[in-house]
Amino acid sequence: MKTTLANAEAALDKVQQDTDKLYSRELRKALAEYIEKQREQVKALRRMMN
Predict the structure, then answer these.
(1) Alpha-carbon torsion angle 5, 1, 46, 7, nearest 10
(2) pLDDT of residue 1
(3) Integer Cα distance of 29 and 47 in angstroms
């Protein structure tokens, strides 16, 4: 499970990099908010596992 969480974090980083390349400021903002929520979920899962 820890490997899967690490992969999820890496995937979020990649999505964030791709999001930064978008032209639409509104879309970048919406995706950034979604990514942040997902990061919080990964952190919560890590806390539950420890």
Answers:
(1) -10
(2) 67
(3) 27
